[in-house]
Amino acid sequence: MIISIIRTILLYAFVVLAVRLMGKRQISEMQPSELVITLIVSEIAAIPMQNTSQPLLSGIIPVMVLVALEIAASVLMMKSGKFRKMMCGSPIVVIRDGKILQNEMRRLRLTTEDLCVQLRQQDIFSIEDVQYCIVETNGKVSVLEKPQKRTPSADDLKVKIKDNKIETVVVSDGQILDNSLKLCGKNKDDVYKILKSEHTRLKDVFLMTLDALGKYNIVQKEVNV
User: Fold this and answer.
1) How far is the C-alpha of 169 from the C-alpha of 211, rounded, in Å?
2) Which of 28, 80, 211, 218 has the smallest C-beta neighbourhood within 10 Å, fewest atoms?
3) According to DSSP H, which parts of the chain are helical?
4) What three-state secondary structure class fits 173?
5) Beta 175-176 vs 205-211: how paired, if at all?
6) CA-to-CA separations, 69 to 18, 20, 32, 50, in angstroms, rounded
7) Per-residue pLDDT tens for 153-196?
């Protein structure tokens, strides 16, 4: 039992490292090759995890090879447009000037119901309002509305908008987050000064946000009765 637990922990740590090496993407944003590699890695890692008679290397070596292949493929895709097109395909326009391109829909095996669902998820309820609708290589849909249907920008209205700096979570459950402090250009001393002015201890803070202008918000931990 102990051996199985240790093997599981080691394989888990190794697979997490392997996925980190392949880059940060959500499942919905993966290219086909990345999704295939991820599925195969999980299957290979499960074999020595379930069967203790299998040596750990029988799971680690294939995973290392797959990760190396994925990294090499990523580099090649950056260097070669032809290779990238072969591995990932190309974006396909399915709506142009309010008209559905039926041949492209058939090519993608995309139903009108699925297309309308994705349009509604972007708050578009009429196909006639769409100037371009493009199915990206990861399966997501990008939409450009017709000019008369787009929300006017500040430039269109000739309005100056105040530059709001990024607000980040700098304290979570009593712990200072160094990376978040860097994002807003602050340091720990700034956090302690704010907490001192609010007569609040760090360990009593559930959530604290802060931006580059010094604007902050503090949520204290609830006291359990």
Assistant:
1) 9
2) 28
3) 2-22, 32-50, 57-79, 81-88, 102-108, 112-120, 154-157, 178-183, 188-197
4) coil
5) unpaired
6) 12, 14, 14, 25
7) 888 888 887 777 788 999 999 999 999 999 889 999 999 999 99
Residues in the chain: 225
C-alpha triplet 197, 198, 204: angle, nearest 5°: 130
Residues 6+ apart with CB under 8 A from 195: 201, 202, 205, 208, 218
Q: What is the largest CA-CA distance in the chain?
A: 71
Which CATH code fits 167-220? 3.30.240.20
125 backbone dihedrals φ, ψ, rounded to 5°: -115, 0
CATH for 92-149, options being 3.30.450.20, 3.30.420.10, 3.30.240.20, 3.40.50.620: 3.30.240.20
Q: What are the residue ranges spanned by the domains of the chain?
A: 2-86, 92-149, 167-220
Amino acid 7: pLDDT: 77
Please tell me the distance from the alpha carbon of residue 135 to that of residue 36, in angstroms, as a whole number. 20
